[in-house]
Records
---
Amino acid sequence: MSDALRHTAGGRQDSAGIGMTSQRTRDRLIDALEQMAQLDPRVLEIMRQIPRHLFMDEALASRAYENVSLPIGHGQTISHPLTVARMTSALLQGPPMRRVLEIGTGSGYQTAVLAALVPEVVSIERIAALAGRARRVLRDIGVRNVALVVGDGSRGLPDKGPYDGILVTAAPAILPPALAEQLADGGRLVAPVGDREQVLRRLTHTATGLTEERLGDANFVPLRRGRC
Ligand code: SAH
């Protein structure tokens, strides 16, 4: 992890944190996640290092290391830590990835986790204000391998594809076929899909076509059309 990640915080709080944002509090959360599910140890190690409290409003920072999703404004939420760990573990399982597309940057926390584990991340967010804030936090903690795009990601981002991985962090009622079409050979896509009841799905692009697995229930904000 970069020195910047350890030592800077955009001037607002120290990324090392104190009290409810301290490394001890962060470790306690990750230790709890370890007990809850079969998760990739590389993902958990990175989550120990990334200061989640910097990705949310200061007023909520004291709750950053509880295993809950929290509001980030504009009616959106930062994903539950267990959800971030599950989705990232599911995406990374298999041959190493070079380029990953994330749809729904939100706070940028999931983006930072991905950026620490794959060489190149492209992330698209439809709400310009959220994208702007995420861009600042990522820059302040020294993350440099993310291309952040403001726009509607519901059809993916074919210009920058194909991708070894696609992670969708907002739920479409039906998975747009254009997304799987942007997967490279062997690529994997993880997305919550559904209207009222959502299921986390993983599609894998194999030589004989797409395979699909269901990874359990999910609870995400809806994937919406258009940008704002
Ligand atoms: N991974 C994020 C989750 C944020 S919530 C985090 O942990 O912070 C999901 C995000 O998806 C929201 O910010 C929402 O604005 C965004 N979103 C919804 N529909 C979208 C679309 N069509 N294109 C891009 N982003 C979208």
---
Amino acid sequence: MSTPIPGQSQRVLSGMRPTGQLHLGHYHGVLKNWLTLQHEYECFFFVADWHALTTHYESPEVIQENVWDMVIDWLASGVDPESATIFIQSRVKEHAELHVLLSMITPLGWLERVPTYKDQQEALRDKDLATYGFLGYPLLQSADILVYRAGLVPVGEDQVAHVELTRELARRFNHIYGREPGYEEKAEDAVKKMGKKGAKLYRELRTAYVEQGDHEALDKARVLLEKQQNISLGDRERLYGYLEGGGKIILPEPQSMLTPSSRMPGLDGQKMSKSYNNTIALRDDPADIEKKMRTMPTDPARVRRDDAGDPQKCPVWPFHEVYSDDKTRAWVQEGCTTAGIGCIECKQPVIEAVLTELEPIQARAREYASDPLLARNIIDDGCKRAEEVAEETMTEVREAMGLDYK
Ligand code: TRP
Ligand code: SF4
């Protein structure tokens, strides 16, 4: 997982496909995690609209509206544009540029072997996914990550393979393009810029690592580099690369930060998903939420009020696990297994908890929905900020690939 590595970028990047209004599964599975991360790291969160087209290229009309609905739900849930940069992928063309440049060095087999490739093709059989865009989608994701030189990528289990591919591509890229002509001399010049003491220590630590494989020395050297304030970005990358005996690290390898799978299944106990029709959307009308929850299935053994049940077999129980305190949960365990309480009674505290949780979210969502400019301005700012960072990376990438004609 994500034990911090010295010298590793503390930038977090994550994207979400625009699937329209978000539901409690997204909120408890992804968004709450983002809310914590945005205060701990420099975060970039984006709407992966190009990713949506890789599978939904035949229905572009849905994407448009879904984008704004999703942005509003992020903001309403507390994603804070003061703390995190939020933007839309297609507005930052550098993602596409890096995608095409990386495609030059991506062996086809690497893409064909990504586990989601065949799985998804199977799962979405009604769609023709024998397209280049679909095969290249994990590469686009790699470009998303690398263009910000993000160090940490919060993803679910199903996406870990994509981050792994990203790491391999970064390594390959640095290997091919990081060895600029005369890189050893350039690295030696950079060492001198650390000052006498710094340079001496760097050399000692580097030798200890390169000659004896001393990993502690490598870590110490990275910390030393992290602390240097007077060296340029280019020199810093040279020095990181040189430490490990290689060239410049232009694209650092990211790490995945595994988001625990959501504890919030749908109303029927399956995964909460629009396609199963078992969701509570963040912006569902409170009366509808109440109705949906009152009619949600319970342990099938409780046919009559005086049949005992087992919370483990009941879709209501996971809601108690998320929303109820110990006392209420004990009351459910006892009441259910002895038929001491009825199911409607049992559901009442979670219905109230869900409504209470959603109330401020819905109030904020109403504000954003009534004034579309609010979200548009936030996204405009975010896109600009994202573009600046992406452009910095691309300047170096172009230079490394011989595309900086002057
Ligand atoms: N592929 C991700 C998904 O389908 C979304 C995504 C696109 C993403 N680019 C990313 C996630 C970069 C993390 C980092 O859920
Ligand atoms: Fe489910 Fe609660 Fe009914 Fe037991 S009492 S079956 S936990 S709703």
